[in-house]
Design a protein that fits this description.
It is built from 10 helices and 10 strands. The protein is α/β, with parallel strands linked by helices. The chain has one domain: Alpha-Beta Barrel (TIM Barrel). The chain is globular, with a radius of gyration of 18 Å. Bound molecules: ligand IDC.
Length: 313
């Protein structure tokens, strides 16, 4: 049984924890797609079933770039329709196999979500209406705000987008990115969003770049009861490349586990980069074997296996 089959619709409680309708805490673990337009082939039901049954993941994140590589905001009408179709395929596949699914508005080169907020408003109106009856859908409204983007900007944006989603669903949790590539959760903690309570603040780390200083920031926010979710992490450096640093990765996992905060690994692709889950010469789109997997992917699957063993013992 998957976590969604067991726990159903989740919400954020008064203590800032993601819980089910009985108040039981649920931490979500899984993978993020690479950009949907770059690697659409992995958005298929067979692979989602494989992830759910063989890898026992709980969640798949659909990363839809807004600006880069045929992103939603830079392409034409046909490109947008294609991306909406891919999201539809992803949401339906996830639902059929009992996975939670995150619809991620993946800002990155467009560093401030206010840049394309009109298009975001339109997009979230479409998807929240379309999926309002799906208990497994979660909305992530801005992946990684970065240069020249303050928490105030993000808050302004969130206060515009959240009511649009809430027109269609009271239940879906909403994840909000934070300044400096989703690291400055302390900024959000100082001035949290008050118009909605079913929210979590997004935190990202790349273990070979981000270390004690950033862990201290995470810890402080967690101690303050800020609802936190790690919708993206890598074992390598922040470029998605370089060497894996599993020692630092283990330290991050211990910290997140300590606060029962879930985490999602970047990325599902065979791109020639350290953070990719599959080897560059592997063309499969499901049914992966050990030899097809990158070192980071193998490490993460072991982390998930250890979790399950701990739970059973
Ligand atoms: C990276 C991809 C890489 C792609 C690049 C585009 O791994 O293939 O060329 O984006 O700009 C993030 C971002 C995520 C990045 C990733 C690694 O959310 O989009 O993906 N990363 O750089 N934040 C920190 C690291």
């Amino acid at each position: 049984m998957t976590k969604y089959e067991k726990h159903g619709v989740l919400h954020v409680n008064a203590k800032g924890k993601l819980v089910d309708h009985n108040g039981e805490e649920v931490a979500l673990y899984g993978f993020s797609s690479h950009g949907l337009s770059w690697y659409p082939q992995y958005i298929n039901r067979d692979f989602f079933e494989f992830m759910s049954e063989k890898w026992h993941v709980d969640v798949i994140r659909l990363a839809m770039y807004t600006d880069e590589e045929n992103g939603y905001c830079v392409g034409d009408e046909e490109n947008r329709a294609g991306l909406l179709d891919l999201i539809d395929r992803g949401v339906k596949a996830a639902t059929e196999v009992g996975l939670y699914v995150i619809i991620d508005w993946h800002i990155l080169r467009d560093s401030n979500p206010l840049i394309y907020s009109d298009m975001a408003a339109e997009f979230f109106d479409i998807v929240a209406e379309r999926y309002h009856a799906y208990g497994n859908v979660i909305y992530e409204i801005c992946n990684e705000p970065n240069v020249n983007c303050t928490w105030k900007d993000i808050k302004t944006y969130a206060e515009e987008i959240i009511p649009i989603i809430r027109k269609h669903t009271k239940y879906a949790p909403i994840f909000v990115g934070t300044p400096t590539w989703s690291q400055d959760v302390d900024e959000a903690a100082k001035d949290p969003i008050t118009i909605d309570k079913n929210l979590m603040y997004v935190f990202h780390f790349y273990a070979d770049t981000h270390r004690d200083e950033l862990r201290a920031k995470f810890k402080a926010a967690a101690e303050n009861g800020l609802p936190l979710i790690i919708t993206e992490f890598g074992c390598c450096d922040a470029s998605g490349a370089g060497d894996n640093n599993f020692e630092q990765s283990d330290m991050w996992i211990r910290l997140a586990d300590n606060y029962n905060v879930g985490y999602i690994m970047w990325n599902i692709s065979n791109r020639d980069e350290t953070s990719a889950s599959f080897k560059p010469d592997c063309d499969k789109t499901t049914g992966f074997e050990e030899e097809d997997l990158s070192e980071a992917c193998k490490w993460f699957l072991k982390v998930l296996e250890d979790h399950r063993e701990k739970k059973q013992s």
